[in-house]
Amino acid sequence: MNKMQEPRIEKLTLNIGAGKDQTKLEKGVAVLKLITGIEPLKTITQKRIPTWGLRPGLPVGCKLTLRKQKAEEILKRLLESKDNTLKQTHFDEAGSISFGITEHIDIPGITYDPKIGVIGLQVCLTLEKPGYRIKRRKLEKKQIPKKHAIRKEEAIKFMQNKFKIKLTGEEE
């Protein structure tokens, strides 16, 4: 296979939504720090939604982005918590992978802390191929050609080869 056609991990994003509950948000920050050892960023709402009790400037969640080797190490542990099994629906048509972990204590190496309790998180993995810089560069930005874009089948094959995942669930 051509080296320019091989997918690779661009980034791994971990996200915990807390809504307006600030104690849950602090627990979410502690969980992400426990899993990765890095301080997460708080996400702040831009809109006012009175029925939900949200107003602009209110922190509603926390997120963390990992790249390169650190992303790969954490992803292996996160997949282990799911028994190295993903569903067809966790893959989108652009080759990104997104799944949830219902209890953070399922992740290997994480122990239960009564102060935190049990919190779930969302995991998003973005894949890219060499040459994807053309869509982010400052000068002469271009779109990724269709023949170079990552498809769902390529993402599934990459995850099966690199992380030995098993696939369950039917095609949509």
Give the arrangement of secondary structure elements:
Layout: E1 8-17, H1 22-36, E2 41-44, E3 59-66, H2 68-81, E4 85-87, E5 97-101, E6 121-128, H3 152-163, E7 166-168
Parallel strand pairs: 4-7
Antiparallel strand pairs: 1-3, 1-6, 2-3, 5-6
Strand-residue fraction?
Answer: 15-25%
What CATH architecture would you give? 2-Layer Sandwich
* Average of pLDDT: 88
Supply the CATH class: Alpha Beta
Shape: globular
Number of helices: 3
Number of strands: 7
Would you give the CATH topology? 50s Ribosomal Protein L5, Chain: A
Tally of individual domains: 1
Helix content: 10-25%
Biggest sheet strand order reads: 2-3-1-6-5
Label the structural class.
alpha+beta
- Written as H for each helix and E for each strand, in order along the chain, the element string is EHEEHEEEHE
Spatial gap, N to C terminus: 29 Å
What is the CA-based Rg, rounded? 18 Å
Uncertain regions spanning at least 5 consecutive residues:
none
Largest sheet, if any?
5 strands, antiparallel
CATH-level-4 superfamily name = Ribosomal protein L5
